[in-house]
Amino acid sequence: MGTTQLESVPEPKYWHLRTVLSEALDSEFEVGEILPNERDLAARFGVARATLRQALEQLELEGRLQRRRGVGTTVAPPRVGVAVGTPDHTWPGTADDAWQPADCRLAAPPAAVADALETDRDEPVHTVRRSRVSHGQPVAAELLYVPPASVPELTAIDAPSGPARARAVLRELQRGDLERQESAVELGSAGADDAKELDRLPGAPVLVVTTRYLAGGRTAALSVATYRADTCRLTFGESGDVQIHHGPQTQAS
Amino acid sequence: MGTTQLESVPEPKYWHLRTVLSEALDSEFEVGEILPNERDLAARFGVARATLRQALEQLELEGRLQRRRGVGTTVAPPRVGVAVGTPDHTWPGTADDAWQPADCRLAAPPAAVADALETDRDEPVHTVRRSRVSHGQPVAAELLYVPPASVPELTAIDAPSGPARARAVLRELQRGDLERQESAVELGSAGADDAKELDRLPGAPVLVVTTRYLAGGRTAALSVATYRADTCRLTFGESGDVQIHHGPQTQAS
DNA sequence: TAGTGGTCTAGACCACTGA
DNA sequence: CAGTGGTCTAGACCACTAG
Q1: Contact state of B183 with A250 under an 8 Å Cβ cutoff
Q2: What local confidence, expressed as pLDDT, does residue B90 receive?
Q3: Using CA atoms, how far apart are residues B186 and B192, in angstroms rounded to an integer?
Q4: Architecture of domain A80-235 in CATH?
Q5: Any bridge partners for residue A214, and if so which?
């Protein structure tokens, strides 16, 4: 990071700063390397700390930086591709299962979920909580809603609750033949519980993947999964791993 | 918004404020209604304007609010579902074409794009710029990279450049038989040009959809599309419109 | 305990919109 | 023009991590 001054330009300081830092990251830093602390960086560029932080937030949103309280700011590795489009990676129990069941409860779901499942609003459904790990890092937290009708042979004795119960539900669910799945992706922010599971602070940006599993002409299950937006790239279809995007698009015209 | 004071809680003020406002939005406001201005709101809750703004930013990220400089803050309508998983909605020229070609240039693409296309890094490719409109609002800006080999019958005479040229390229491209497509979704921020096209400020959060189109065993084209993260929900597969998510996930335990 | 990022304040000025 | 959100400052204190 050679120069230490910002020219006066009509664009916001924090945006210009973002660009300068981004180029510095490309040319002068290695993945995992720690940056100078925020107070030093702000002084070096002659801006207030809040302005510097605005630039860092942008870069973190783009997956270029990783910040941890009490530790520092490090250069983030490229985002990991996470397959979500094919049943292999989400329908429970398939071979390379990166999902780890955490809990299971029987309770009435949110109204919107009940509507999508076509169950009564106060009819309890199995609610499985799972977390997904990739490359040793937690990447997603999921709530899977399974109406009792989808797991008819589930015996109450298997296990009362907890991970064992969750596995029993998933095992029974998998006996059904999945026809197809429909997904939607949108931006959201992590709630307190998801944040803890994803090792982030509350409000951290997440990609919310809502998936409806269809089997036997019915909605067999419905999943709401939150993926870390800073570290994940969601892939659909054959896991063809296209890695193109890097920073805001700029078109020389 | 009845109460005007925040209790002292161990959670950040802006987060608590976000929750309070979110509930107020559900119960006391209609879509399109304008909120009091930031200075009034901050005073009403007894916090600094910056803190209030942090809460509003969260809600905007979640698609609950829409803020426009010089105008005010309004309650946003639910996100619109935008189909991106099936060729019908992205492969050029299909029936219900919501895409509007804006420009076309012949130029060497970014290195990463050239690698994915399996062309030489300095080999020029057709670069089509399109924008997608839904419900009268711009929702996406796209750069479509088409190697000359994918449009062999394109005559240089059709049109030198501009929208007409873009349409010619798309028309020729469509003559190929699309086998399948692979997509990836990640979070990004809008560059200056995308931002203008999407009617947002630079740095606005976008969902970057990178798609590789396969035809005749080759990569026929590659697209990098940026969708407004605040207003869009990307749907994959049959356009089954699951609308579940609303605010951070909270699990009563 | 020293150093980091996270939160919060109270101001100021700017860029933009619409009447 | 008045009013809005957007940017920026210079501080302060807190929560967390690691030696």
Answers
A1: no
A2: 64
A3: 19
A4: 3-Layer(aba) Sandwich (3.40)
A5: A180, A219
